[in-house]
Amino acid sequence: MKKILALALVLGACGGGSNDFDKFMKLDSEKAAAFSVGGKDCKEKAKSVGDWRTKNSADYQAMRKSLGEKYGKDVPKDVMEKYGDAIKSNKKAVMDAMFACSSDPDFSKMMDATKDKD
Fold first, then answer.
1. Measured over all CA atoms, what is the biggest interatomic distance in the chain, rounded to whole angstroms?
2. What is the DSSP string of 52-95?
3. pTM here?
4. At what angle do helices 19-36 and 2-11 cross, to 10 degrees?
């Protein structure tokens, strides 16, 4: 639960449902979708996540950093009301995939190959 709250603090750093946060949540949801591809097929997941990371990780990390710097750790109530469930759902999709595929050679190779993108 602490990790979800910490994620919410980082992700939910912007108040009032601003356009910046809407853009970030769009990327975050696309990231979760990439991690959900292929069900338990880690090779399919590796391709999907690798493509997403190659294309989006730099923007995703820059937005995350910018929102954190701009708004700090105070999560406005309206942000949590609007995005709280999506934040939890997105985090679960990523964590489930990481757990399911952490020992898969294709998935591990992709994570190593795209780590510079983060």
1. 42
2. HHHHHHHHHHHHHHHHHHHHTT---HHHHHHHHHHHHHHHHHHH
3. 0.79
4. 130
Long-range contacts of 92-99 (CB under 8 A, 24+ apart): 93/32, 93/33, 93/35, 93/36, 94/31, 94/32, 94/35, 96/35, 97/35, 97/36, 97/45, 97/49, 98/35
CB 35 within 8 A of CB 45: yes
Distances (CA, A) of 73 to 18, 66, 104: 16, 12, 35
pLDDT over 90 percentage in the chain = 56
Over residues 32-48, mean pLDDT: 95
